[in-house]
Every structure is written in structure tokens, then in C-alpha cells.
Amino acid sequence: MFMDNIKQYLSKKRQLVDQTLGSYFVDKGNTLFDIMYYSLDHGKRIRPILAIAGYEACGGKDINEIMPIACGLELIHTYSLIHDDLPSMDNDDFRRGRESAHKKFGEATAILSGDGLFAYAYELISNGNGLVAEKNKVISRVSEAVGPKGIVFGQMLDIAAVDPLTPKKLRNIHLNKTAKFIEVSIECGALIAKASEKTIEKIKKGGILLGMLFQYTDDILDVVGERSALGKTPGKDKTAGKITASAVYGLDGARFRAKRYAERAKAVFHALGSEFMFFDQIIEYILNRTF
Amino acid sequence: MFMDNIKQYLSKKRQLVDQTLGSYFVDKGNTLFDIMYYSLDHGKRIRPILAIAGYEACGGKDINEIMPIACGLELIHTYSLIHDDLPSMDNDDFRRGRESAHKKFGEATAILSGDGLFAYAYELISNGNGLVAEKNKVISRVSEAVGPKGIVFGQMLDIAAVDPLTPKKLRNIHLNKTAKFIEVSIECGALIAKASEKTIEKIKKGGILLGMLFQYTDDILDVVGERSALGKTPGKDKTAGKITASAVYGLDGARFRAKRYAERAKAVFHALGSEFMFFDQIIEYILNRTF
Fold first, then answer.
1. Which of B112, B136, B139 minimises the CB distance to A156?
2. Quick check: is B2 in a domain?
């Protein structure tokens, strides 16, 4: 019953996100948009759904306010996947159940399609329906989370990481590469719904914990996941000698810590009141995900 | 006398831009900022100077309003150079008088330093002093000019271009790869100075002409320029069989058309009144540039 609710919720929101994303990519009269859309298609839409969930939990009533931002987050996430998959980085040929962008279109076009998604995300966000002050704050926070103080920094640490695999290095990579952007996704929803600063501070804390949980389950799935369910190649992190949660703590240790992150995240969202009850289910769903 | 004025003006503004850029890159406690700054250093700062000139011509009085945006434009320009220079794209090992980013730091780090500059540009712009409505408009216009309807599209056309070299293809590449971003640089200044819509429409027209002129002189310098002055390798476009103005029109034809773009651009800025007189000198300077 519990899991049925969340599955239904996620499926409904995913459809909405997919529909809106599609509307941003029709009739553009230039093939670059088709190429960008190829990589965008078939995502789980976790970040846009978190933005919508954050918006609704904070009392937002007009979903059109948050949709361009939610979709912008997915564009940015997709751009980061395209660049991470490149031969000079993680060299992954399989993503979202199909050939990765550089395998399909060649390296130059892949890089450019990532660059294009990144820029187009900002165009969508700035042209969206929200009030300019809130949108400006969103742009500032998103840029911080995805740039050289966030994802880009995390990816650099990730590709440069060498032995020994320490918990400190692991945390720094997870925090920058994944958790900050997951956190900001929820925060965007709260900002556009004009949540109080106090609420936003708590969301930041809960969002980071949820983001750490998300990366822990990603690391676990790299060990135990199935290629068909994941839509990407498992075992790559291990082969590449990457610093992952299971490499540092062992599989059981990683599972134990994932569960602890889930509990801590739940506690923070509980404290935000009944409007945030749904985050309980989201957290549980992420903890138990198989893809 | 005439040229002394403009040289002094450009030198003064360049110093100001360099100083402000430097202030955004100190004490960040992460080496990625140093790596990004390496590629940022030693630029001509044409786009930031055009933003400042547009701001001042439209009556802007507080230079701190435009500086974060002016610098953001330079970050975005530098990111596009880093990605263009990559082995899978134009494969240029020499830029701004030194090894290009991928030659110096390796391909993965170069891609990431470009990504980092792009994101950091938006952070600077959104955190700047201007009013949020104007900043939001700037972000929208910049994103359009540098994304899949602008620079990224132009670069894709450029790397995919095949015979025959037609004037139409040439114009499409120049417009998207260079002219739109040059135009938007001036427009940003006008937007932040709260220029009227009528003024901005004229600036757009003049800016595109100035941008076309800029790319024409770039193409000419690829044929006649000196490596030491350019800080990049001349002759690369020709070797790569690229569509350039001199390839399509011959060197004399390209020079003739560059001059015509300069005259048309001047006429548009003249019509904007005496506050824009200085654009005469900027245009003349670009027409006669040797680097």
C-alpha cells in the first residue's frame, strides 16, 4: 500500500516532467535539439520530482511556476552525465538503456550537446513563470551546486582520486558530485514556493542527507545492480578503482550507512511537519531502489 | 590621436576587468579555480569591454552593477575556447600565448575547467549588484546567445561543415558562433543601464553587424596574422578546410566585406546619438586589429 502510493506518485510526476520536457524540444528547426533530447530521454527524473515535491510541501499551488526549473535541473543532470561518460573521463558507452552520447554521435557532438543542455537549462529557468527575485536565487544556488564548488569539483576529485581510499575523500566526492545538487533540487522548490528561511535551512540539511543516501545506493547498485534495470554498466566504478562507499566500507558497511543516512534524513523532514510526510516515502524508495 | 584614445580606453578597461576577474579567483581553496584561471588569463577582454561600453553609453553610472556580468561574459567566452580547442574539436594546442588547457592539464580536466567556468559565470551574474529583473533578462539573453540557438549551434555547424563552402553556410556559422554573443555583450550593458526597448532594438542590430565584423577580421587574421601577436596558431582554419570568409570570398573579398560591415555598424550606432560616438572608435579598432 505504502509503496503503491509512492510508485503512483513518482510515475505521475515523471509523466508530467517528460511531457513538459518534450514541449521544450519540439520544432526547434535545428538537429542539435534532437541530439540533446536523445540523451535526455528515459531518465528517472529524480531531481525534477524532488523540486516539485519541495514546492508542493512548501505550499506551492501553481505547478507551472516550478516546472521550467524542475526541467532545467534534469537538463543540467543530463549534461553532467554526457560529460562524465566521455572517453577521457569515465568512458561509459551505455547510459539510460542505450548508447551514450559520444558512442552514438561522436565525441565532439557529445561535448557540444552537453554544453547545449547546460545553457538551455538557464534559458528555461530564467524564462519561467516564477517571480524574478526567487528565480534569481534559484539560479545562484543551482550554479553553486553544479559548478566548481559542486558537481564539477566532485567530478575532478573523482577522476583524480588515488589510493588510499579514505572516508574523508569519499565524503568530499559524494558531497560535491551528488549531494549538493540533490539538496538544491528540493531547495529550488522551496524557494519558488517562498518558504521561510528557517524552513529552507532545514531542507538544506535534509537534502544533503538524502543526497548522500542517493549516492550510497548508487555505489551499492554498482556492485549488486543489473545492467538492464540500471540502464548503465554496473561494476565500472570497481574496475576503474574508484572511491566508492562499498570500496571504503565494504558492501555491508555501505548498506548500513545508507540506512543511517535514510533515518537521519527522515528525522529532519519529520521535524518540518506533516506537509513533508511524503519525503518519508521518497527516502524509503531511494533506499530500496534497484535502478 | 584618435587611435591613442581608443588604445588608452581599452587598456584602462582591460586592467579593470583583469583586476575584477582576479578577485573572483583568489583563496578558493580548491585547485580547480587555479586551473580555470590559467585559461582565463591573458585575454583581450573584448566582450566585457563591450558590455561596459554599452552600459556607459546607455547612461549607467555605477560600474559595479555591470562588472560581474562583464566578467561572467569573459568566463563564458573562455569556456567556449577551451572546449573548441579540444582534440575532438579544433585540436588547437596553443591559445592566448600559451599551451591550451587540454595540452597543459589533460583532456578531462580541460573539459571540466570549461564546465566550471560556465557555471561560475552564472553564479557571478546572479549574485551581482544589478536589479533582479534586469539580471534575469541578462541571464535569459546570454543563455540564448551561448547555447543551442547560438554559440553551441554555430560550433556544431562549424565542425560538421562540408563542401561546398557557400556564403549562406558561412553567414550561419558566423552569426551563431560569434555575432550573437558579441551583440548580447553590448545588450547586457544596455539592459543593466535600463535602456529603452527602442534603444535595445537598435543596439541588437548594430551589435550583430559588429559581431560579423569581428569574425571577418578573425578569419582574415587566420590568413595574414602572426602567431606571436595572435597568441594562437594562424592557418589552422585553412588547414582544417573550414568555412571562413577568406575561403568563400578570397582575402580581398573578405577585407572588402569586413569594411562594409564596419560602415554599416557605425551607421547604426551613429543613429543612437552622441553617447554612442565611442563605438566608432571601437569598430575602427576591430577592423584594423592585428591580434
1. B112
2. no
